[in-house]
Amino acid sequence: MPAFKDRRIDRLALAVCLVGGVLLTIIGIRYMLAPQLAARTFGVPGRPAGFELHYIVGLRNIWLGLLAVVFAALQEWRALALWFTAAVGVCFADGLIAATSTGAIPQVAFHLGCGVASAVLAALCWRASRRPA
């Protein structure tokens, strides 16, 4: 009976994680499609007077950075490969945003370089995940 209970808890945890992931994805899409409305919904004025959005971005970067550190510490190569694969798209998108915003070459080059580095790291992590334990 305890094994059955563990499977139920595992299924419940998986379902909650999936719903949470989908919810965060929807929130992110909403920010992309209607940024001012989304910002107001989450308590940030349409045009922040201070650094509210900077803090939000900073906290997300801290969270994502620590997630990568934990994956690396646990040698979760597949998770790292997926993390870096997602980072490729984010880095290139950030580069595009920087190019259309300021157009400053150093900032655009930084984002593009991070995208290339993330692609290389994704490939290396995937390769490490395929090696026998």
Characterize the structure shown.
The structure is a single chain. This protein folds into two domains: 1-49, no CATH class; 50-133. Helix content is 84%, strand content 0%. With 133 residues, it is an all-alpha fold. The protein is flat and about 55 Å long. The model has no long low-confidence stretch (mean pLDDT 88).
Question: What's the gist of this structure?
Answer:
By secondary structure, the protein is mostly helical. Helix content is 84%, strand content 0%.
H-E string: HHHHH
Unreliably modeled segments: none
Structural class from helices and strands? mainly alpha
Radius of gyration: 19 Å
Averaged pLDDT: 88
Morphology? flat
Distance between the termini: 32 Å
Proportion of helical residues: over 70%
Number of domains: 2
Query: How many E-type strands?
Result: 0
Number of helices: 5
User: Strand count, sense and closure of the main sheet?
Assistant: none
**Beta-strand fraction estimate:** under 5%
Sequence-ordered SSE layout with sheet pairings:
Elements: H1 2-33, H2 35-41, H3 52-73, H4 77-101, H5 105-130
Helix pairs in contact: 1-2, 4-5
Key terms:
133 residues; mainly alpha; 2 domains; 0% strand
